[in-house]
Amino acid sequence: MTPATTERAPAARVLTASLVGTAIEFYDFYIYATAASLVFGPLFFPSDSPTAQLLSSYATFAIAFIARPVGAVVFGHFGDRIGRKSTLVWSLMLMGGSTTAIAFLPTYAQAGWIAPLLLCVLRFGQGLGLGGEWGGAALLAVENAPPGWKARFGMFPQLGAPVGFILANGLFLILGLVMSRDDFMAWGWRIPFVASALLVIVGLWIRLKLTETPAFRDVLEKEKPPTVPLGELFRDHWKETLGGTFGVVACFCVYYIATAFALGYGTTTLAIPRETFLQVQLVAILFMAGGIVWAGYWADAATPRLVLAVGCALSVGAGFLIAPMMGGGDLFLVGGILSILLLLMGFVYGPLGAWLPGLFPARVRYTGASVAFNVGGVIGGGFTPIAAQMLAQQGGLPLVGIYLSAAAGLSLIALLLLRKPALD
Fold first, then answer.
1. Is residue 422 included in any domain, yes or no?
2. Which of 45, 166, 218, 228 is the least crowded, having the fewest Cβ atoms under 10 Å away?
3. Where are the beta strands (DSSP E) in 12-160?
4. Is residue 19 scored above 70 in pLDDT?
């Protein structure tokens, strides 16, 4: 994907920027997911039923997934026309600003219906920013990668996911341990959202030191950038866009069942203490980090498509383990299934940084990778927590497992059908 003769930015700077930036973005996204599972229900959606509160809270969680494809189009447009660097800076500012503002929202008891409305607006802003983040961060890494290193460079934005998760859930865990439940519900939950502002400052400082990627500079030297990247994408690369979209469904479904749904189900239905469950998830997320690194090295030795296909096939089988391992509430078995799912998440997520951008030429690569990734996110993750919660209520955890297996099977079919080799 990167011309061998084009000068690249220093590897350490590029990889740090791609990792730190996505870690901050995912930290912002995950503190919302955690708060949605733990506190947003009673604070913003009054109801006599805790389950109804949780479902309402999960509904706001889905709003960002609706916004993400919009962000992919908007930021992809400018990323393919004016460059990767400036677009990444603006996506980070939008995401961080929306997250920080959530800290200062009134609750339903203080402002009535205006409170959940403002929450939904800011959640949309989060999704808009994240819609432009992942594609740009992946391109920053792989378009600066030397030959034979694309998957290993491309895994660094993916590692931002477990890093962001550890920061988010670790902070919630610490607050839960040092604060009373009343204080946490009254004001303590706002602290992680305020902390986002500090992290964004660090991310901006790193990203503003970047130079443009070699692939984009090469495009500008040879031809004019596309006037409407989205139009060119759908006209000339619709098969790759469609295949890439369904190819990423598995990673979103696996992740949000193992995190957002599992946290809500574990602390309500299974009655596992919140701090205990967060500790279990923090251990399990390390398996995801290990899986991403493993998959990155394997994908460079083989192909990203092969590693993704193996991960999807294994995820189909893992769906049938959810009910027997999680249903009884045994903490060891619960931790085991979460670790298995998140390890597999590393295989269906880690190689995406190399595989998705490789489907598109550089002139529409930001738009193509971003649209496929984020539309796939809507299908695979946007409604997964609420769908899984409803399935668990109606038919128990076996239906949740079938749901996950079906999503992984869908991605496997897309990977098998889309045989296009990666572009240089």
1. no
2. 228
3. none
4. yes
